[in-house]
Amino acid sequence: MNLKTVDILIVDDEPINIHTVANLLDENYNISIATNAKSALDIINEKNTPFHIILLDINMPDMNGFELTEKICEDKKNKDSHIVFFSADDSADYIQKGIDLGASDYITKPIEPKKFLLKMSFWTKLIIQTTENKQNTQLLEQYKNTVDRSSIVSKADAKGIITYVNEAFCEISGYSKEELLGKPHNLVRHPDMDSSVFKEMWHCIKDLKKPWMGKVKNRKKDGSDYWVQTIINPILDKNNNVLEYIGIRTDVTEIEQMKEHLKKQYDITQGNFNEVMNLSKLYEKAMDQSSIILRANTDKIITYANDLFYEISGYTEEELIGKPYSYIKTDSTIKTSYIDEIIESLQDKKVWKGQIRNIFKDGKIHYFLATVVPIINLKGEILEYMSIRQDITEIVELHQEMEETQREIIYKMGEIGESRSNETGNHVKRVAEYSKLLGQLYGLDDKQAEILFTASPMHDIGKVGIPDSILNKPGKLTDEEWEVMRTHSTIGYDILKNSKREVLQAAGIVARDHHEKWDGSGYPRNIKGEDIHIYGRITAIADVFDALGSHRCYKEAWEDEKIFQLLKDQKAKHFDPVLIDLFFDNLDKFKAIRDRYTD
């Protein structure tokens, strides 16, 4: 934060006083002015953030500085604003009254420049320091919350007595906070743990005053065990004395239990070698019969596929073995970055899990949940890659069919709203296509753009609640009729707002916000700028562009030039200026959609 970001409001009914103060402050501050209490309140209320300093004259007509201070302090938003009175009356009673009302300082008139600037310097430094302290405190709190949510955390005093545990600690140990606080940390120690580990730990954190890291086996309240990867940090005061210890842990129980299991199962000796080999073959056979298997060497040449892979792909062994993996076609919608992520993960000797889509001999897309494992020898070298798949094609196609059915229902609901006002179904199709395109140009991700595409046709669903006499009136609406017509936005939102479906929730937002305007003059909430949801800002342009170019019962279709001129004129008034620029930069694409869905 710097001086330029310190907001100051000067309130005085005498222009000469405002001029004097503004000149003294020069351009070092961000200054606003008001010549009376009412305009000062308007400025304060319209501003999203509070003024840092309000320089306030006491003797003003209509409402004096004391009365204005009371109104300012009523709004909790202004609790951090510093109100500084200036007045020719420097009586103790006057000053005390100002302080009692919440003023931070009092400057007497006529203003002495050096004294005034000295006070402004003091308050500015205080504001900057306070803001930085708040930011640092907020950042520290976020760090603490992040650690608290993602790890098993405890604190102990210098004697090892527990002073804090988070929910994760209680959950894994089985103890409540009340059972843990005030107890020594060895309450959860497992008897299997070698005592030398704890001697080393205490030497490190208490004597050397350094962090200790290691793996610890603990005991739960019910007697069962769990393993945690642990870091214990000693917290020191300025004299290097230990204040407390903070322990941050990660649950590694499954890994340790698996290691113990494998050690027992595969502790190969001369006596059990044949048994282990037999067990290994049984595992391999079970996996081969239950999963779709494909293997490739480090040059990505296919070396093996099991019967299930041949069956589902339609290929024969002769057609696949020895071919590069790229011989199996990949769905064209898969991004190159997704393939690169898989390759990079495997080359780093990591297991990759995710969804794979292939086009097999039948020409159809097949969907799989896949685990791709790099097979590594004892030297750490990758020998080959094994892909283990589960076919989820039927599930994906069923999901797609449900989505398509849902989309069709939403279109039909949108058409119901439009048909009541004698508008065509192609209007909702065009608005959907325009909205999706504009959303993609704006930078919405694929999922958001698809949600908007599906939701935008319902922008006027609230028209089902508007009487036909108003909805299809050929002439101009009266003020009373216009008020009724405007309610279609909130009617649409109220219909959809309680849905548990993400698409219908989005449709409710579109219905509510698509008549809001960038400058705040829209309805139903008179919000402005980016307070309007991006779905509403996008649909507003799509709807107006299409509506102006279409015949209605109350108007003829406009010519293109007239439509484009209105959109340009309403940039940063009705419409988001960034979206308008994107629209005109890609005008041919929008015209192509219009031509494809003509009435």
General description of the model:
By secondary structure, the protein is an alpha+beta fold. The chain is built from 24 helices and 16 strands. A hairpin with a 4-residue loop joins strand 6 and strand 7. Helix 15 runs antiparallel to helix 24. The longest helix is centred in the N-terminal third of the chain and has 38 residues.
Number of helices: 24
Largest sheet properties: 6 strands, antiparallel
Task: Please bin the fraction of helical residues.
Answer: 40-55%
Tally of extended strands? 16
Strand order of the largest sheet: 12-11-16-15-14-13
- Poorly predicted segments: 419-424
The value of Rg in angstroms is 35 Å
Please tell me the overall pLDDT. Answer: 83
Compute the separation of the termini in Å.
56 Å
Which term fits the overall shape? flat
Entry keywords:
single chain; 599 residues; alpha+beta; six-stranded antiparallel β-sheet; five-stranded parallel β-sheet; 24 helices; flat
Compact overview of the structure:
48% of the residues lie in helices and 18% in strands. The chain has 599 residues and is of the alpha+beta class.
